[in-house]
Amino acid sequence: MQQKRLLVTSALPYANGAIHFGHLAGAYLPADMYVRYQRLKGTDVLFIGGSDEHGVSILISAQKEGVTPKDIIDRYHELNKSAFERVGISFDNYSRTSLPIHHETAQEWFTAFRDQNLLTRSSEQQLYDPEAKMFLPDRFVVGTCPHCGYDRAYGDQCENCSKYYDQTELINPRSLLSDADPIVREAEHWHFPLGAFQEKLEAYVASHEKDWKENVLQQVRSWLKAGLSDRPISRDLTWGVKVPGEDDGKVLYVWFEAVLGYISSTKEWAEKSGTPERWREYWCREDTKYVAFIGKDNIVFHCLMFPAMLMARDGYVLPDNVPANEFLNLEGKKFSKSQGWSIELQDFLDTYPADPLRYTLAMNMPETRDSDFYWKDFQARNNNELADILGNFVNRTAHFVDKHFDNAVPEAGAPDTVDEAFLASFATTAETVASNYERYRFRDAVVNTMNLARAANKYFNDREPWKTVKSDRAVCATTLNCSLQAIYALSVFIEPVLPFTAQKLRDFLRLPGDAPLRWDGPAEYRLPSGHRLGEKALLFEKIDDKTVEAETAKLGGIGAHEEGAQRSHPPLKPQITIEDFMRIDLRTGTIREAENVPKSNKLIRIIVDIGSEQRQIVAGIAMQYKPEDLIGKQIIIVANLKPATLFGIESQGMLLAGSTEDEGPVILTPLSVLSDGAQVK
């Protein structure tokens, strides 16, 4: 069926912190660029967003600050909504999951599933804090990841390897409420039968093998290969959407209700528009195309779980594409607000305009792999590309027209082949850039857009109007006429990435009422001769080296990618006594065997000879070491660590390694070779 309308959603950010560049590059800028392009194409498109205002992260933030969860969500919802507006993210509706319309929607979905006997109610094992006397939500417990060995993993997902698991699988878990060792207790919850949709989901994913991004397909296939199972959709909490018919201690699990925020936000938009039932056109009509923009940490929820829920309700459209991006880092390191390694969007926009940031992020968008924001790169993009290419061309054209043609569009003479080729390039640009946007290739779209600005500069230079204004005024008039047509074309093509600059260009051109602001406009329409222009304005101010140095210094010195960069380290742990340390048995040992663990890209299984016996250890070092390079290496292990199972393999100890957020792990080895089994003191 031919597409009639387009529904676009961006992941709902948690309202417990400020939006930073990584969020923007991951799910919001690409969505906005896509939507702005589609609007210029004349598509009936609806762009939906909102704040995710439930879940444990909100409770944790409130607990740390000694305020209520509502205080937190009210603050960050308004802060982030304002930041999105200032950076030009053009949502048609930006809602909140704390609104009654969302609670009603989520409860209605739960009730519908329960009434059709789709849900089951059963007991499951859950971690319980005996001191706080409550079951621990996933984000209130931390421990060692069962997959990669990361020792600060939360109870649902490891931030290091991005793997999901049950909280009871954590190694050495502890409560973030009381620092107590939690115990396992039975808790009764409602479950959604995700496994029952395995075949339908396999067929759904298979139907998109040619158009979904490879990073999306790989993660989804991994889940499907492992097999889907029932998932709990209720939790023992006081903050969230209450489960209908239950006591006050049970709420809908945030993974289940948050995605329904897209639907409740659309309902809110429809009500605001005076057409309360129009939301169904975008969610329940077969001729709607639905595109969900997210970061890679949300792939499974939007490609498997949410589609399964939509399938279960029947009559709802499924995501046609989920063009998830990878992560954006800052100066070679992960964003970390606690360590001061972050740039909040609102703070940035207090000093710098939005468009250069949008452009820099678009040119470094993490479409296929993680990428970085560097202040030096931001400076270079602004100065060398936006100012010296786009800004320079517009300024030169405006100056010549103002000085020699009374600030009006000159009458063009008969164009020669060079003029004709230049004007014809507008249609070629429209086609090429459109193809990039339709395939979610945003960097390529911006590169090809800027290629027109580069071509315009070359055209202006080659035609030498500073000479022809004296030798052949008619030729000069034609050159400037064509250059103004190019500015009109650029005002259309840069709109998705540089919307504020596009408006400045349109203000300068004072576009006539019949000038189409459509994607195909530049190929068809020409500014009329004699049309009066507006005042020229400086499009981009250059950024000097001192400014960049000052900004980088705020991050703790020179960028982490440079030689001698300062490194951030986790805070020191609480002091222990000598008796505590003496309980740890450290031994030297030589690696005799090593092999990669199947289905894991981070784990290596090693056999270590510690003199008296051989130990099997599973270590998360595969990203730094090849198994064959480890054979014969002498290492130090914790020999009296309680065994743990990772990927079905028993690990009988732990090797010592050093790491920071952007280095390692690096295996620690004795300075001189010792006999295997020597005690390390």
Question: Can you put this structure into words, describing what you see?
Answer:
By secondary structure, the protein is an alpha+beta fold. It folds into four domains: 180 residues, Rossmann fold (3-Layer(aba) Sandwich); 121 residues, Methionyl-trna Synthetase, domain 2, CATH 2.170.220.10; 168 residues, Isoleucyl-tRNA Synthetase, Domain 1 (Orthogonal Bundle), CATH 1.10.730.10; 103 residues, OB fold (Dihydrolipoamide Acetyltransferase, E2P) (Beta Barrel). Helix content is 40%, strand content 18%. Strands 17, 18, 19, 20, 23 and 26 form a six-stranded antiparallel beta sheet that branches. The longest helix has 30 residues. It is globular. About 2% of the residues have low confidence.
Key features of this structure:
681 residues; alpha+beta; Rossmann fold; Methionyl-trna Synthetase, domain 2; Isoleucyl-tRNA Synthetase, Domain 1; 4 domains; six-stranded antiparallel sheet; five-stranded parallel sheet; 26 strands; 40% helix; 18% strand
List the helices and strands and how they pair.
Blueprint: E1 5-10, H1 21-41, E2 44-51, H2 56-65, H3 69-86, E3 93-96, H4 100-115, E4 120-129, E5 134-135, E6 141-144, E7 153-154, E8 171-175, E9 183-192, H5 198-206, H6 214-226, E10 231-232, E11 234-236, E12 250-252, H7 254-258, H8 261-272, H9 279-283, E13 288-293, H10 299-313, E14 319-321, E15 328-330, H11 345-349, H12 354-363, E16 371-373, H13 375-404, H14 417-438, H15 442-463, H16 465-471, H17 473-493, H18 499-509, H19 521-524, H20 545-553, H21 578-582, E17 586-596, E18 604-609, E19 614-619, H22 627-630, E20 634-638, E21 644-646, E22 649-651, E23 654-655, E24 657-660, E25 663-667, E26 679-680
Parallel strand pairs: 1-2, 1-13, 2-3, 13-14, 15-16
Antiparallel strand pairs: 4-5, 4-9, 6-7, 6-8, 9-10, 11-12, 17-18, 17-20, 17-26, 18-19, 20-23, 21-22, 24-25
Helix pairs in contact: 2-3, 4-8, 5-6, 6-10, 12-13, 13-15, 13-17, 14-15, 14-17, 15-17, 16-17, 17-18
